[in-house]
Amino acid sequence: MVNSGRSEFLIGATKSGSGKTLITLGILAALAKRGIDVQPFKCGPDFIDPTLHQLVVPRPSINLDLQMMGEEGCRNSHHFYAADAEAVVVEGVMGLFDGGLASSAALAKSLDIQVLLIVDVRSAAESVAAVVKGFETYSPDTRLLGVICNRVGSSRHRQLIEDAISASCQTPILGFFPRDVDFEMPSRHLGLHMGHEIDQDQRRMEKLIQTVEDSIDLDKLLELSLKKNPITPDLRADDSQVQQNTKPRLAVARDEAFCFYYPENIRIFEECGFEIVNFSPLHDNALPDDIAGIYLGGGYPELYAQQLSANISMRNIIRNWADDGKFIYGECGGFMYMTDDIVDHDGRLHEMAGIFPVSVVMKKRLSRLGYRSPELVTDCLLGDGGEQFFGHEFHYSDIVDRADELEFLYTLADGRKEGCKRAQAYGSYIHLHFARNVKSIKKLLEELEVNRAKRG
Q: What is the pLDDT of residues 374-431, one digit of tens each?
């Protein structure tokens, strides 16, 4: 980049479905092709969009969520990953002001960055100016750096919109993106496909990059969003680092069935002193050597239920691990794998690890969705009774059979009990973010070290 400093902006929209993800991918890819070192972020708890970002840039895409991580947690993550980047692009969530505390506008304000507003202009022309005017005046704390009009149908359509916005609004138009179904992303029952599931069509990607270059004034965008003296504080190089010769090893399930992890959670585990080792409940026949615990993240176990069930050796090993009173933690898809069985969308029953006497069945409609702030029912390796955690729940399955004697793990804000606890095995539908519970991860490490010492 010619100028010193760092360009930073959040890509927001007037509503969901306006084309944020596609335009974000195009801008990321175009900047990367120019040789700009760009750091992507995603506003909200979404696991899928960050994997799409990583199709086009080498850096990991990091979730920033004020509801789960708090303001300090978001700022720390932003500063850590953005410190040595030349540009920062944050993809927003839903409409710009949707979500209250967790909205894209709130995050932009917290990070002190401007907003590039995407407006879907299908079936409208001059009225687009009224929409932009409304977004300009709705919140004085939200700074719009520019507007991109998406799905423009013709040159006449463009001219009508451009004349109206120029006459009535202060925010400059930085691009007119054409309507082209060839750019549409494939969909699935839980939203977009994960990045690793999409075949990278180089022709389509090059076309997207070229369209971005032709349709969006990237030079102006970088200029308007330039921060000449971005804040780069101490990046957590403090006493959170655990100094020890041998770090306890945490086995993390990573394969097609288990792929939903917040990168920050993994980094928190590492900073607290864990060594992360990956394994596959789908493909492996044994756990990694000399591990202190197991972490089963979310994903799509229902899509791979037959293969998971067929890997009997792994199911038995993991069940025996829990039976021996060793630490294992599963969330959402990982929790489902810890149950007795899963009934898939076709009504077929697939045996799982059998740690919890629970049966789950897949539903055609979304079962639960929303932020959760669970509190531990009793003292356990995860923390003290009453300790509050922060996360998000999103799943298409329900528990249909649960043993009465099985302990609950959490109490939710509405009084509902959630999750399962059996000895040192813990499972829940809630995807936790540990940014506000780092002390709990440190305590977990200490407890596992004590347990390992007792076992010799």
A: 999 999 999 999 999 999 999 999 999 999 999 999 999 999 999 999 999 999 999 9
Percentage of the chain lying above the pLDDT 90 cut: 85
User: CATH: 3.40.50.300, 3.30.1360.20, 1.10.1200.10, 3.20.20.80. Which one for 6-227?
Assistant: 3.40.50.300
Domain spans of the chain, in order of start: 6-227, 249-455
> Which positions ≥6 away from 381 have C-beta within 8 Å?
327, 424, 426, 444, 447, 448
Residue type, 220: K
* CATH topology agreement for domains 6-227 and 249-455: yes
CB 28 within 8 A of CB 89: yes
Rounded CA separation 260/352 (Å) = 19
Q: pLDDT per residue over 119-142, tens digit each?
A: 999 999 999 999 999 999 999 999
Report how far residue 51's alpha carbon sits from residue 193's, in angstroms, rounded to the nearest whole number.
Answer: 9
Quote the Cα angle for 130-134-137, to 5°.
135
Look at residues 56, 32, 49, 18 and name the one whose alpha carbon lies nearest to residue 205: 56
Pull the structure tokens for residue 194: 């994960």
Largest CA distance in the chain: 77
The least confident of 205-209, 226-230, 233-237, 449-453 is: 233-237
- C-alpha dihedral sign at 180, 185, 186, 187: negative
CATH number corresponding to 249-455: 3.40.50.880
Has 43 been annotated as catalytic?
no
Which tokens sit at 297?
């993240």
CA 23/CA 20 separation, integer angstroms? 5
Q: Which of 149, 332, 380, 420 is catalytic?
A: 332
Residue 69 to residue 71: CA distance in whole angstroms: 7
Rounded to the nearest 10°, the torsion over CA 173, 174, 180, 181 is -100
